[in-house]
Specification:
536 residues; alpha+beta; 7-stranded mixed sheet; elongated; coiled coil
């Protein structure tokens, strides 16, 4: 008794050209690689002479070898050698292509980092009340960013962004040190105002003093540090005048007398230090992030600590250089590694469907998970893979042969009392691949669903049809008896069918055979059958 049978079809005698069985597989494999490479090539903005030449050479070779009458396709061995040479040439092209794409992407990302840093610094200037959004200097920075975005040459654009970052960062840290100085002056001014309150002050002068104290307290609300500085200067002058008047001393304007400021050279050195740290931290974090992104096998990034922000510019510069060097070394490995893994993904996906490819599949999986794969190792596996499938495809059936086999099977089944629905199918192989075709069993309410699986094997499934019946009303015991009877009839007819087809040189090589106890007979409605035939 049988509910599921899977067989490989072999012909005891074949007059077809061996090369004809392999050429479609070869074409599909080469076209798949070319399609992927072309998509990458089209996305490359700046194509240099080297990559253009490699692209032209690969395209020319592909056009030459993809002709059906190409001499190398006469045997599996010569086909394998030709494919090996083609893929080596393709490897070189793809590696160069990925290198250029990585460089383009790196420049684009670096430019984005610079723009984000500019936006960050401008936001900090405004949010920390160092400059207002209406300040001419702020508006000029905004115009500079907009103008730089129109610079055609990317390298010039990036260098200009870096210079602009340095300018804005210098202004930001200058404002920070200016703020420290202003805060000290404000604190001193508040002390002077408080001392003045203790003197013999008239009510009129006291009102003026309280007004000045209120203005001193609200200095922090001024959103532009230069405006705050000017306002502080005015308040200092007014408070000095009031103090002199209360003390009975003649007041002299101090406008021309400079306030005591921190040593300018010392402040400039501190500003330069902070600006340097800002730029170095930005670039070091960029390279650290890129290492983490590309190190998907986690072989490199664990050796590098996060970027040290609380350090000297000299030490941070050293860390930045080390990160840039490591990123450069890692970036050199990525193109080759990408090519290797892309090829292995395709090989593994195909081999995983083949029950006879165990050892080759294991080797491909091991190399795929190797953090340091080499092209030489890929070439060995690819050579074995091509040889394996070329040999396999040379023995596989062509569309014409499949058509003959399917017609013979259906005719033999008709002779045993099975009914085949008449339908127009231009390509029998494709029809049986797209969905299962129903053949009515001589046993009432049962059918055989026939299909071709991805391994080019013929699949027979015994199914039960429950048209117009309420499934809940069916007697389980009766179903079991009917299943056993239908399975026994199909098992007997299958054996006879096998012998009859052998006389026509069509051999069934059984890959799988299950009885209803192992694989239960599936219960389907007529709608299920239509879906299985046309959608699956």
């Amino acid at each position: 008794m049988s509910s599921l049978i899977v067989v490989e079809i072999a012909l005891a005698r074949s007059d077809d050209d061996v090369a004809g069985q392999s050429i479609e597989w070869i074409k599909k494999r080469i076209h798949s690689l070319l399609s992927s490479a072309e998509r990458r090539f089209d996305t490359l903005t700046n194509k240099n002479e080297r990559v253009i030449k490699l692209h032209e050479e690969l395209t020319e070779i592909a056009e030459q070898i993809l002709t059906p009458d190409y001499p190398a396709w006469k045997s599996p061995e010569s086909s394998r050698k030709t494919m090996e040479l083609f893929f080596r040439k393709a490897d070189r092209f793809r590696i160069v292509l990925i290198q250029l794409l990585l460089e383009e992407n790196e420049m684009r990302l670096l430019e984005e980092v610079y723009i984000q840093k500019i936006e960050n610094l401008l936001d900090r200037l405004v949010s920390e009340s160092f400059i207002s959004a209406e300040n001419p200097a702020y508006l000029e920075y905004r115009r500079s960013v907009e103008n730089l975005s129109n610079v055609a040459v990317q390298s010039e654009r990036i260098n200009s962004y870096k210079t602009l970052i340095s300018d804005i960062a210098t202004r930001y840290y200058t404002c920070r040190y200016t703020l420290l100085s202003l805060n000290n002056r404000i604190a001193e001014l508040k002390k002077e105002a408080s001392s003045l309150e203790l003197k013999n002050v008239s009510l009129q002068d006291l009102e003026i003093l309280h007004s000045l104290q209120g203005q001193i307290s609200s200095l922090s609300e001024i959103s532009d540090i230069e405006a705050r500085k000017e306002k502080l200067k005015s308040l200092e002058e007014q408070l000095s005048a009031l103090d002199h008047r209360v003390s009975g001393i003649e007041h002299t304007t101090l406008g021309g007398i400079p306030h005591e400021e921190p040593d300018s050279e010392e402040v400039k050195a501190k500003i330069a230090h902070d600006v340097s740290l800002e730029l170095l931290t930005m670039e070091a974090e960029f390279f650290h992030g890129r290492i983490g992104f590309f190190d998907y096998d986690e072989t490199e990034s664990s050796d590098y600590e996060p970027v040290a922000k609380e350090t000297t510019p000299e030490r941070l510069a050293l860390q930045r250089e080390n990160l840039q060097l490591e990123y450069g070394l890692l970036k050199e490995k990525i193109p080759e590694k990408t090519v290797i893994r892309e090829d292995l993904e395709e090989i593994i996906q195909t081999l995983s469907l083949d029950p006879d490819a165990g050892a080759l599949l294991d080797a491909a999986m091991i190399l795929y998970h190797d953090p340091f794969p080499e092209l030489r190792e890929l070439s060995v596996i690819r050579r074995q893979y091509d040889a394996y499938y070329l040999q396999k495809k040379s023995k596989s059936l062509s569309d014409k042969q499949w058509g003959t086999v399917i017609q013979s099977i259906l005719e033999a089944m008709k002779g045993r009392g099975y009914r085949v629905k008449s339908r127009k199918m231009t390509n029998l192989r494709d029809s049986f691949r797209r969905g299962s075709i129903e053949v009515f069993s001589p046993v009432s309410h049962y059918s055989i669903m026939i299909s071709i699986n991805p391994l080019d094997e013929l699949v027979f499934r015994l199914v039960r049809i429950v048209d117009g019946l309420d499934i809940d009303e069916l007697d389980p015991d009766q179903i079991q008896k009917d299943d056993a009877h239908a399975s026994a009839v199909w098992s007997r007819d299958y054996a006879i069918l096998q012998d009859e087809l052998k006389k026509e040189h069509i051999l069934f090589i059984e890959r799988l055979k299950k009885n209803p106890d192992e694989v239960p007979i599936q219960q389907l409605t007529r709608f299920d059958i239509l879906t299985d035939e046309h959608i699956s």
